[in-house]
Amino acid sequence: MRTQFTILLSGLLIFFSCKNNKPEKVAEHNTDAPVVYGYTNIKGIGYEAGVTRRDPSDVIKVENTYYVYYTKVLGQAPGYWGTIWYATSNDEGYTWQEQGEALGVGSQGDFDSHAVFTPNIIMANGKYYLFYTGVKPTLGRTDSVFENNSSTDITALGLAESNNPNGPFIRLNSNPVLKISDNPEDFDSYRIDDAALLYREGKYLLYYKGRSRFHGSAGPAHTHMGVAVSDLPEGPYVKNDKNPLLDKSHEVMVWKQGSGVGALASISSTVAYSETGFDFMSNTHLVKAINRPNAPGAYRPDLTGNESNELKWGISMVHNGNDCYLRRFEVTTKKEEKTHLKGSYGYDRKLLQQYYQDATVLENPSEKSGIVVVPELQGRVMTSTLDGDEGMSFGWINHDLIVSGKINSQFNAFGGEERFWLGPEGGQFSLFFPKGKGFDFPDWKVPTIIDSESFQTVSRNKTSVVFNKKASLTNYSGTTFDFST
Fold it and tell me: What processes does the entry annotate via GO biological process terms (predicted)?
């Protein structure tokens, strides 16, 4: 039997008329001013059911038109699939028109014959150079699948060029412009990906992320940023002997900042700075990135020959389960933030915004009440306040679990108040015990839809937010429930 349900999940702010007692107050001090990011949904290449758009390039402007290049996948979950598409905008990235495919896969047997993705671009000498990551099917597979195993599979950077930002883009040759290291101990012996370009002092700097075969199966936590240098945009590129330049850099974004170079270290959510572009780790002064973007590409006038020394906006990715789409980010403000006492609303709000990109703050404009709702935690109301950041945090939050980033396959007590719960937990109609298992604690498993999966934000304003989620569950008796919007 298959039963169809439609659900609309909504988190709404409820304001209280009573006042709370403040937590015991301690001395507050100013910290280094963080970089704060805000977001705007975009038209044209935003959310679209059944379509993945991810890994946007840096944004360039040619005459009065903005260009962004990205990975697009039809009918596949995010992963090692896709080709490179592009879109244009005439209103600073709020509305986009998808123009079509910019680069398809390479010829059979070439390093990029399975998929091409994570593009980036730079203009030089009147031409547009499109850098990208390519993969080919895993050796020995008869079904042409790329496994992404850390033993034999590789990624590499390719390069195509055009006289026009609209293409056509033609590969310079069938070989990569940058390959993995042959030394298994090197930081980039397993993966090279995520190109970002910068022209500085007569040299072309090709920044990229790398991961060692020693850490291949351990995931993004061991990804670092490196750089290769060339006199010409088409190469050859020589890797810098100071590599890696920056750790905790699973996603590469660099830009001209003042007289030096800024870089986002995505895993640690920090912004680093180097006067030379090569010594990020020798500068121990890191600035916190609040609500940092995922897989971002910055609007960079310098990529088309204009001077730029400030990051203002760009395009980034939203990743909700199998849904990937693009949105605009803005560097909204740089301000001195207070250090709040643990147990206060301000302390919990800052922590949630640091670890969950879509954490949503809803506020009563006429009072100091507010709540924090987290789509990544199934739209839970994680905490609330009646007296602003200095007021008590009305909600239990498992700080240690959130900071650890670890997910338990059985259940995860993140805290907060669920907006949606399913039952029964036990018995013949249980949703917490798989068919054929006993009703013992080791067999008990909370469905991920109410435990660890993200919900998608449909709309939000200052006082409300609406989510949706598609999922399917089968109970102990074999009945399947489909949840969709």
Answer: carbohydrate metabolic process
363 and 310 both lie in a single domain: no
What tens digit of pLDDT does each residue of 365-402 get?
A: 667 899 999 988 888 899 999 988 888 999 889 988 88
Residues 389 and 480 in one domain: yes
Q: Are residues 275 and 318 both part of a single domain?
A: yes
Can you give the three-state secondary structure of the chain, one letter per residue? CEEEEECCEEEECCCCCCCCCCCCCCCCCECCCCEEEEEEECECCCCCCCEEEECCCCEEEECCEEEEEEEEEECCCCCCCCEEEEEEECCCCCECEEEEEEECCCCCCCCCCCEEEEEEEEEECCEEEEEEEEECCCCCCCCCCCCCCCCCCCCEEEEEEECCCCCCCEECCCCCCECCCCCCCCCCCCEEEEEEEEEECCEEEEEEEEECHHHHHHCHHHCEEEEEEECCCCCCCEECCCCCCECCCCCCCEEEECCEEEEEECCCCEEEEECCCCCCCCCCCCEEEECCCEEEEEECHHHHCCCCCCCCEEEEEEEECCEEEEEEEEEEEECCCECCCECEHHHHHHHHHHHCCCCEEEECCCCCCEEEEEHHHCCEEEEEECCHHHCECCCCECHHHHHHCCCCCCCCCCECECCCCCCCCCCCCCCCCCCCCCCCHHHCCCCHHHCCCCCEEEEECCCEEEEECCEEEECCCCCEEEEEC
56 and 191 part of one domain: yes
Best mean pLDDT range from 142-151, 214-223, 356-365, 414-423:
356-365
Indicate which CATH number applies to the domain containing 61: 2.115.10.20
Q: Are residues 85 and 220 in the same domain?
A: yes
Condensed to tens digits (0 to 9), the pLDDT of residues 150-165 reads: 677 788 999 999 999 9
> Sheet containing 260-265: which strands, arranged edge to edge?
254-257, 260-265, 270-274, 287-290, 35-41, 323-334, 313-320, 294-298
Q: Are residues 264 and 303 in the same domain?
A: yes
Q: Give the residue from 313, 334, 355 where a domain finishes.
A: 334
Q: Is the pLDDT assigned to residue 196 strictly greater than 80?
A: yes
Alpha-carbon gap, residue 183 to 238, rounded angstroms: 16
What's the total number of domains in the chain? 2
More confident residue, 237 or 20: 237
Q: CA 191, 193, 199, 202: dihedral to nearest 10 degrees? A: 30
Residues 74, 184: one domain? yes
